[in-house]
Amino acid sequence: MASPSIKVVDSLSLLSLKVAPNVFDLSSGMHHVSIRDQIVRAQLLVRDLLHADHELKELVIIGAGVAGMSAALTACELGIAKVVVLEASGEPFSLFKGLHTRHVGPFMYEWPSPFFNDQSYPAHKRTGWAASARSPLTWKADQPCSADQLATLLSESLQQRLSEVPATLMIGRRVARQWIKDEIEAFVAAETARHGALLGGNRLPPAHRIDLRKVKVWSDSPTRAMTVTPQYILLAAGMGKEDLQLVKTDARGRAYGGANPLCPPFWGADQLLDGASRDASTAVFGGGDGALQDVLRALTGRAHPLELLRELEAKPAVKRALRGKMDELLSLDRQARQLATWTSRSQHDYQQLDRACIRIARKLAKCRQMVRQIWLLIRRGRGCVTLVVMEAHFGKSYLLNRFLMHLFWACVRQKPASWSGRMGLDIRFRHRACNYTATSLGHCVQVLDVEAKTTTWLQADLVAVRYGINPESVPGLQLIQLGQQYSEHRTTLARVELPFVFETRS
To answer: Which GO molecular function annotations are given, in alphabetical order (predicted)?
Structure first.
């Protein structure tokens, strides 16, 4: 008797991204959130949906950012008959437009892998995937570009793709968030009833139909639909709002009810690169990527870390010293990333990686030429940058930011007499803000030493708060009420690393 055959299907994206019956979330609660990750995640989900449901004909996508438009273009390319994108703002990629102070690159943070120094996507001169790589959005860039420049590149790519894919895509703009929420809830209710009827062998109730007649259409939308009866809804409405509340509890741990500063969000214009900031006192709160980026920008005046690397390696002895550590750093990075897939979201995940970076940085700081190059990178000025970190080590951050931060700190702590006239750097681990007062001269923040239980006052002209996303603001959780247990299960699956590019099958 022949054993029954087992059909193996690609389903990781379906398992990790499903949040309700026939609803998948591309952006909420993600562990890997780069521009590149968003593109690949969207491609994989649409591919797997089509493999699982050959009858897929109508699809609704919430959000016209990188994830949403990647999903939409992929769906059109793969032959889905009707694709509708609903965007709350006025146009695709609006988050990045007009922002010149934040720089991005799809491979910048793959350092020390050999292909980190080319920011084109998906084709890349340092890899062998160019022939098979496929992306709905493509661009060429040697170096990281500003968010505004990226928006221009993405928009140009989108226009090109819209001229190539079938005219089955409608892009709605300035759609009311409450209307979107109501339609999603109605869709979920209808799909839940249909699934129940199917399991019970009963007649299927009608699917939910969305009336689009009052939806404004983006000027470059390929088509205009009056209604859509989606079989699936993909949420790509962003990661949520940042937690910009500097002080949460007072020195005794009680809820804080006092004032807090108004701080720009990560994707907002700031003054850290302004010339005047070299003579300013800057305080950065947080221990993740955003905080480390802001410290490096404020301290050096360089827009992104690859500028720092390039200038560091201008000195042959420094280049040799850094390159001599790249294999070890790459091994540490790979281990940390793979461990994160199989480990809970504890801050202790990063402790061993931090210790290894400190050890390497301190060895490099014994090189006189290294210290000299770091000195040259720090801006001339009377200012100081203070980083306040709640934990005893840095949190979730790319290795490039983590290592450079430890390298600067190790070199600064050598305290050579010749460093006078350069900006200062101070890092306070196991500290947190516990009180705040606005003054005529700027900001006055009371900082608690968590272990010593003592407080000091920190005067600052500029304050940056980088605590990450406020969990209560996550769009997916706002649009659909989820149980916490299921949310944690889904988020754990979403920790699995994504490939660098989506590859077509030969």
So the answer is: oxidoreductase activity
Tens digits of per-residue pLDDT, 426-440? 999 999 999 999 998
Task: Examine the domain organization and report whether 367 and 487 are in the same domain.
Answer: no
Answer yes or no: pTM beyond 0.90. yes
Contact partners, residue 58, CB within 8 Å, separation at least 6: 80, 81, 82, 83, 84, 228, 229, 230, 231
Sign of the C-alpha dihedral, residues 198, 201, 203, 205? negative
Cβ atoms of residues 384 and 343 within 8 Å: no
Tokens of 16: 């990790």
Q: Which residues neighbour 113 within 8 Å (Cβ) at sequence distance 6 or greater? A: 107, 330
Do residues 102 and 24 both lie within one domain? yes
Mean pLDDT of the chain: 91
Judging by beta carbons within 10 Å of its beta carbon (0-12, 13-18, 19+), is residue 478 exposed, middle or buried?
Answer: middle
The larger pLDDT score, comparing residue 323 to residue 483, is at 323
Q: What is the tens place of the pLDDT at every residue in 479-505? A: 555 544 445 555 567 778 899 999 887
Q: Is residue 270 part of a domain?
A: no
Query: How far, in Å, CA of 304 to CA of 404, rounded?
Result: 11
Tokens of 367: 């090189």
Asked if 368 and 414 count as a contact pair (C-beta separation under 8 A), the reply is: no
Vertex 120, ends 316 and 164: CA angle to 5°? 170
Report the pLDDT value the prediction gives residue 485, as an integer from 0 to 100: 47
Measured N-to-C along each axis, helices 368-377 and 305-312 cross at an angle, to the nearest 10 degrees, of: 140
In this prediction, residues 86-109 reach a mean pLDDT of 94
Instruction: Give the pLDDT score at 443.
Output: 97
What stretches of 226-318 adopt beta strand conformation (E)? 227-228, 232-235, 281-285
Q: How far is CA 246 from the centre of its chain?
A: 21
Domain that holds residue 479: 12-240+471-501
Q: Which residues pair with 414 in a beta bridge?
A: none
Other C-beta atoms lying within 10 Å of the C-beta of residue 298: 29
264 belongs to a structural domain: no
Residue 449: strand, helix, or coil: strand
- Which strand ranges, in their side-by-side order, compose the sheet holding 424-429? 424-429, 384-389, 281-285, 462-465
Token pair of 376 as six digits: 């040259």
Number of domains in the chain: 2
Contacts with 310 (C-beta within 8 Å, 6 or more apart), sequence order: none
Intra-chain end-to-end CA distance of the chain, in Å: 35
Do 234 and 360 fall into the same domain?
Answer: no
